[in-house]
TrEMBL record:
<dbReference type="GO" id="GO:0016810">
    <property type="term" value="F:hydrolase activity, acting on carbon-nitrogen (but not peptide) bonds"/>
</dbReference>
<dbReference type="InterPro" id="IPR032466">
    <property type="entry name" value="Metal_Hydrolase"/>
</dbReference>
<dbReference type="InterPro" id="IPR051781">
    <property type="entry name" value="Metallo-dep_Hydrolase"/>
</dbReference>
<protein>
    <submittedName>
        <fullName>Amidohydrolase</fullName>
    </submittedName>
</protein>
<feature type="domain" description="Amidohydrolase-related">
    <location>
        <begin position="164"/>
        <end position="452"/>
    </location>
</feature>
<dbReference type="InterPro" id="IPR011059">
    <property type="entry name" value="Metal-dep_hydrolase_composite"/>
</dbReference>
<keyword id="KW-0378">Hydrolase</keyword>
<dbReference type="Pfam" id="PF01979">
    <property type="entry name" value="Amidohydro_1"/>
</dbReference>
<dbReference type="InterPro" id="IPR006680">
    <property type="entry name" value="Amidohydro-rel"/>
</dbReference>
Amino acid sequence: MTPPPVATDRAPAPLTLRGVTVVDVHDGSLRSDCDVAIVDGTITAVGPRDDACAPLAEVVSMQGAYVVPGYADMHAHPLGRQDPTGALALMLANGVTGFRQMHGSPDLLAQRRDGALDLPSASPALLAMPGALLTPFNAATADRAVDMVREQHSAGADFIKIAAVTPEVYFPAQAEANRLGIPMLGHLPAGIDVVAAVEAGFHGIEHLGPGVTMLAACSTDQTNIAAEIATAPTPKLPPVELPFVDRLMDRVLTKLVVNPLNRSKPADIELLQRAVDTFDEGKAAELADAFVAAGTWHVPTLIRLRTQQLCDACEFSHDPYLKYMAPATVQTWRGAAKKFGRFTAAQRETFRSVYDVLLRLTKILDTAGVKMLAGSDSVGAAWEVPGFSLHREFGELARAGLSPLRILQMTTSNAAEYLGTTTTAGSVAPGRVADLVLLRDDPLEDAAHLSSVMGVVQRGRLRTGAELTAIKNEVSTTSPAH
Ligand SMILES: [Zn+2]
């Protein structure tokens, strides 16, 4: 027998947003003075004011507000490491109505499958989730990696995420993922030609590499740089699964992700500098064409790269949003910045110039028509306050030279395309889930206007600016707990 629905799960009452300007995220056109009617959490009508369309609805006048689909953070880590309540609340209060969780575990997959993954009511929706990250720790051999792909596929993972696996492991694992029809994506494996990887089926590249992997392919000195990457020592690990390896790995990763650059050796930094010095826009454009041909997705996570490459910049240590984070977390971030400050001035200059090249690369990918998504890489990365960091990502994409419309698409319609949900999400139209952001200023004029959030609709439930402020304040006063 099905239990009676709990009150909090009940669909909100019908709602009509009156007098709004609807933004078409596909062509950038605007329709002013519209009604958006919402019933049972779904948009039922969009058009000129029509009192007959939903007579029982609560009518909220939002005269002049711009309506866009809710934002998707397509690279985030709120679940699995600590109590996610505060992080999820901050995301929602910033207009994030959906997120792609970028690491998983057998536990998380089982909880989701059993309907036991209870997210708080103030939370964006979980859009997709992998199993445990495939690394040399848990996938040291090809056989083990293939088994992991099978296990995660049958446990219900939406995709397989890899990082730092060796070429010997990568290709068999990719072949198995292809056979099962599950996307494999993540960090480009070092020592493999990027084009060979995407032609083998690598579905998406995160963080523009990371590191030197993709920059090497944009270099006039590609052969030599690639040879150096290939001869770099790979971690020596026992080819058997250790007990609790995932939990152990998670602890290692939690420390590492704060700022992975802090582990750089002088030789790594010299190699980065060579990649910067020999960066070639023509080669980058050719590579971009290869991504277009292969249908490869990119999630640049520029804000992650900026906080990493410029970790000791005062823009971060003086960030007013730090008040939303637990003091212990901020302490860890300050520690990471201090450690970063111990690199020489020349080394830090190399890191900074890498970031400038990555901005140029992002623009080249965009110009070529590479499919891209917006992602912040918050929770766990230094200086990344959940929710706010996606807005910072919008700012960095604008800094790279992307148009406001393109940035809006990356966080809305492109996310729906990636997820295969364009008929139910990613636009403001009848039949779509009523996940919406209401903006004070025209988002097509300036990407900064994507942050002029005056209301968020989540599955048909409207939260006004005052409610969003209350949610954020609640997190800031309880931050030691989250
Ligand atoms: Zn990540």
